[in-house]
């Protein structure tokens, strides 16, 4: 007989995150949001999953691939255009400006861990709903801020087990003396070679010439290999800023590779741009990226407010940090209670509840399985101890506490179990 399965599937490009992988995912999230980011002064922020579409059009830029082609945009019942958040920085800036956080101490340091939505062509490491971890330092244009942010992302990735390579560039600021002038030079170069470019990239010369550096088309890439690069056209102030960022990173022992062709996909970036790449991910090898966005506040109607941040792809970190053994890694279950018989079952639930009240992780059989099955589940749960309750234990108000890895066991009074388990943990 064929097994009945649901007719429904998760939408294309989305993933169900299931145990045991979900443990690893949680570990990666908590390391960032519970340890590394707050330890550097970054406080958590949550913004809505959807925003008014203009936040992204004006913040990220209508000319960018993300806004132009990938957003999930829909009208609400009142006819307002809303968009599922494709990235985290514009919403964070919107929230900061709305609540006037810039009136407090600067820079404002915020961290988020949130799902993002982009209608891209799905492949390994590229999804339509994916998770990003990010930090933003808003209100300082001091190069030390750039160095701090870049170092935090780098150190965090190393701690997850990813071996990142840091690619670094400066894309200058928008004035004519800097990127503005360079873009004209680049457009002239591209126009002279328009026939050599891949047809799909030709339109970019006028709309967004910088993006031709990101083209995957072989023909375009050959042209870009010889193209003038922004780092040769930085104004004095941007060049000095970039020198200082590099010097600070060197000071901190962070190795980087200068990549004069690194441009970032979102329009708001200025000056420092960086990416963390990792091996083993195929074509989607960027585990994260970020940069300065000194004009973003103003494009959202706020005051001049420089900022820098990064976003790391959680899905890719989990892929790149390799296979961890055993589903039980990270399992919070310390004790598995094994019960023989109905009466013992009641005692088992009582013991489990008592231990849980003391924040000890406990699991137990809820299927009325035989002893063998329960012991197998105890091992699978990743628990350190099995607490076994049979007829004899019931009568003497004891349990047999078995160390699952070592195998040794002893009878102990029920009310001593918590103490012994906690002792073992400390
Ligand atoms: P971005 O916001 O485009 O700078 O992306 C920052 C990081 O988010 C990338 O380096 C990826 O690790 C991750 N990322 C971006 N787009 C996707 C996607 N469609 N699926 C999975 N991860 C993504």
| Average residue-wise pLDDT | 93
Strand content: 15-25%
Structural class: alpha+beta
Instruction: Provide the number of structural domains.
Output: 2
Q: Describe the global form.
A: elongated
Q: How are the strands ordered across the major sheet?
A: 1-5-6-11-10-9-7-8
Largest sheet descriptor = 8 strands, mixed
**Which fold name fills CATH's third level, the topology of the largest domain?**
BirA Bifunctional Protein, domain 2
- How far the N terminus sits from the C terminus, by CA atoms, comes to 52 Å
Task: Please describe what this structure looks like.
Helix 5 (143-160) packs across helix 10 (236-251). The chain is α+β, with helices and mostly antiparallel strands. It contains 16 helices and 16 strands. It is elongated and about 90 Å long. The protein has two domains: 21-176 and 235-321, 2-Layer Sandwich (BirA Bifunctional Protein, domain 2); 335-425, 3-Layer(aba) Sandwich (Rossmann fold), CATH 3.40.50. It has an eight-stranded mixed sheet, with helices on both faces. Strands 13-12-14-15-16 form a five-stranded mixed sheet, sandwiched between helices. Helix 13 (342-357) links the parallel strand 12 and strand 13. Bound molecules: adenosine monophosphate. The site of adenosine monophosphate has 17 residues, from strand 6, strand 10, strand 11 and helix 12.
């Amino acid at each position: 007989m064929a097994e009945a399965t649901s007719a429904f599937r998760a939408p294309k490009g989305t993933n169900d995150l299931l145990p045991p992988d979900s443990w690893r995912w949680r570990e990666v999230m908590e390391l960032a949001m519970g340890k590394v980011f707050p330890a550097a002064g970054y406080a958590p922020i949550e913004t809505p999953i959807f925003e008014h579409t203009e936040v992204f059009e004006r913040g990220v830029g209508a000319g960018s691939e993300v806004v132009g082609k990938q957003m999930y945009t829909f009208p609400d019942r009142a006819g307002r255009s809303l968009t599922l958040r494709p990235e985290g920085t514009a919403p964070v800036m919107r929230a900061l400006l709305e609540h006037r956080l810039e009136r407090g101490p600067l820079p404002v340091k915020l961290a988020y861990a949130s799902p993002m939505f982009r209608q891209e062509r799905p492949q390994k490491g590229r999804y339509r709903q994916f998770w990003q971890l990010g930090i933003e330092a808003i209100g300082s244009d001091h190069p030390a801020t750039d160095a701090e942010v870049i170092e935090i992302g780098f150190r965090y990735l190393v701690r997850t087990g990813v071996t990142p390579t840091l690619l670094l560039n400066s894309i200058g600021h928008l004035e004519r003396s800097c990127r503005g002038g360079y873009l004209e030079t680049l457009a002239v170069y591209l126009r002279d070679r328009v026939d050599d470019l891949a047809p799909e990239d030709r339109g970019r010369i006028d709309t967004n010439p910088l993006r031709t550096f990101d083209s995957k088309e072989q023909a375009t890439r050959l042209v870009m290999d010889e193209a003038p690069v922004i780092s040769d056209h930085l104004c004095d102030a941007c060049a000095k800023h970039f020198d200082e960022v590099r010097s600070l990173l060197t000071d901190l022992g962070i190795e980087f590779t200068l990549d004069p062709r690194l441009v970032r996909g979102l329009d708001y970036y200025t000056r420092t741009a960086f990416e963390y790449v990792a091996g083993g991910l195929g074509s989607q090898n960027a585990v994260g990226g970020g940069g300065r966005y000194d004009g973003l506040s103003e494009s959202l109607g706020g005051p001049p407010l420089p900022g820098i941040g990064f976003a790391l792809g959680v899905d890719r970190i989990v892929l790149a940090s390799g296979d961890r053994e055993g589903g039980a890694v990270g399992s919070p279950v310390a004790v598995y209670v094994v019960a023989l018989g109905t009466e013992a079952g009641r005692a088992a639930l009582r013991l489990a509840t008592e231990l849980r009240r003391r924040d000890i992780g406990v699991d137990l059989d809820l299927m009325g399985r035989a002893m063998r099955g329960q012991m197998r589940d105890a091992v699978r749960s990743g628990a350190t101890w099995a607490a076994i309750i049979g007829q004899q234990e019931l009568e003497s108000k004891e349990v047999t506490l078995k160390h699952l890895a070592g195998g040794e066991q002893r009878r102990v009074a029920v009310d001593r179990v918590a103490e012994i388990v906690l002792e073992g943990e400390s």
